[in-house]
Design a protein that fits this description.
Length: 139
């Protein structure tokens, strides 16, 4: 379990660092890559993690079909995280299309998926923090 967290954290940092380097190269006019190529490391991470969540959901419902007790809240949590990752992928692709000039909408319209994603993540983290504070207070 601990090794899985370390691997996921390492892959996350590698994806973010690679994307930051690509952004620096693009902004510094060192390369003329399309913005979707610049965001590719983050997109690959999001797609892979979404597939892992889909497999987790499939396993969850497979266990349910053979009458093993399951945790319903974990299924809803996986669905919620899958929704957030898909929303993040949509936001990154739409912003990249706008930066390339392939999309003519204004930035306020283009960033709607990003704002929904940020509000949802903020609400989720607040809910988790409040739940943790209540749990610690009861102990």
């Amino acid at each position: 379990m601990v090794i899985a967290v370390v691997i996921r954290t390492t892959v996350t940092w590698i994806a973010l660092a690679t994307t930051a380097i690509f952004i620096a190269l693009r902004v510094g006019n060192e390369t003329e890559w399309p913005w979707i190529v610049i965001a590719l490391p983050v997109l690959i991470f999001d797609v892979v993690y979404s597939l892992v969540l889909c497999l987790g959901l499939w396993h969850h419902f497979l266990e349910r079909s053979i009458h093993i007790p399951n945790n319903v809240s974990s299924a809803w949590r996986k669905l919620w995280l899958l929704f957030l990752f898909i929303l993040n992928i949509i936001a990154v692709v739409v912003v990249c299309l706008r930066l390339n000039g392939d999309l003519s909408s204004s930035y306020s319209v283009v960033c709607i998926p990003l704002w929904i994603f940020l509000v949802a993540v903020t609400g989720d983290l607040t809910r988790l923090l409040v739940k943790d504070i209540k749990r610690r207070r009861d102990v």
